[in-house]
Amino acid sequence: MTTRAALRALALVSLLISATAHATIFRAYLASDGNDANPCTLPQPCRLLPAALTAVTDGGEIWMLDSANYNTATVIVGKSVSILAVPGAVGSVLAIGGPAISITAGGLGISLRNVVIAPLAGAGGTHGVSMTGGSTLTVEHSLIANLPNRGVSVVGAGTVRIANSIIRNSGDFAVWLETGASGLISGTQMLGNTGGVTAYGSAGDATTTRALVSDSVISGGAAGVKADAGSGSILYIGVTGCTIQGTDKALWSLAADGAGAEIIVSHSVIMNNNYRYYQSGEFAFVGTAGNNQMGMNNQSFGSTVPAGLQ
User: Fold this and answer.
1) Checking DSSP bridges between strand 75-76 and strand 101-103, what pairing results, if any?
2) Are residues 89 and 65 in contact, defined by beta-carbon separation less than 8 angstroms?
3) Is 309 exposed, middle or buried (0-12, 13-18, 19+ CB in 10 A)?
4) Distance CA 156, CA 127 (A)
5) Closest residue by Cα to residue 281 from 251, 249, 256, 263
6) Helix (H), strand (E), coil (C) string for 74-138
7) What is the DSSP secondary structure assignment for residue 279, as one 8-state letter?
8) Which of 100, 112, 165, 166 is nearest to 137 (CA)?
9) Is the Cβ–Cβ distance between 280 and 253 less than 8 Å?
10) Beta strands at 25-30 and 305-306: parallel, antiparallel or unpaired
11) Cα–Cα distance between 93 and 245 in angstroms, integer?
12) Is 302 exposed, middle or buried (0-12, 13-18, 19+ CB in 10 A)?
């Protein structure tokens, strides 16, 4: 072999090695006995989520194979990915010095399934999931518990879909939507949080924030659902097929001058609350689309009006 041919062969081998080192895989695996030096394959799983996020291709999946905690700091998700724990495993992501999971990039599709999110005791955690980029987050069959602040916080033009999950004992609202966010919460239990679902618009915010809560249970806290509109913001919350009980204000609508806060409820049970509804502001609105059961509440503030669905 000539010297030139040998050099070409060496260059080709180097390219192949480099491509292999930087290759990504569609399905990455994590295990309690894994190692982040591994390629995150099923025979050689990694240990922590950041390693798996590096290994997985955009649009791929990360599987937690057994019961363990899979992070040592906030997990920053910067690509479209599904993060799942196998049935029967407790795949945990902990809030340590901040949110458990942070999503700041836009245009992503991220899903969490069968995941447990909780704080690490004494570690200064905040939210369960914090999303500030305009991405789409789906949470299914998961548990978010005992967070010092919000269970799921979406600020900005992002969308969150939460289905068949439990969010309990948060130090703030179970689900917080702000500044143009959209939320769809179905089949979910929100228990013992400071509040259930809130749509919030700060003063001078010209965005519209929306939420639809269906077939869910909200129990305990200062508010079941709350629309809190600062001047210039528009908020809509629809509630259907839900049970709200044991709160201070089951349906709470507040609107500053130049704002709008609208809650429409139908086919729901509103019982054993202090206020069944509470309205504050000229353009704060609580409407009933019919077939609600509102009983054994202590009082109300303001008035509801019929609101036909179109």
Assistant:
1) parallel
2) yes
3) exposed
4) 16
5) 256
6) CEECCCCEEEEECCCCCEEEEECCCCCEEECCCCCEEEEECEEEEECCCCCCCCCEEECCCCEEE
7) E
8) 112
9) yes
10) unpaired
11) 30
12) middle
Mean pLDDT by 10 residues, the chain (310 residues): 44 40 84 98 98 98 98 98 96 98 98 98 94 97 98 98 98 98 98 98 93 98 97 97 98 95 97 96 92 94 65
Residue 302 has what pLDDT?
Answer: 83
Q: Is 27 exposed, middle or buried (0-12, 13-18, 19+ CB in 10 A)?
A: middle
Report the DSSP beta bridge partners of residue 236: 210, 262
* Residue 198 to residues 31, 66, 102, 156, 238, Cα–Cα distance (Å): 36, 34, 20, 14, 11
Using alpha carbons, list the distances in angstroms from residue 75 to 46, 93, 131.
15, 8, 12
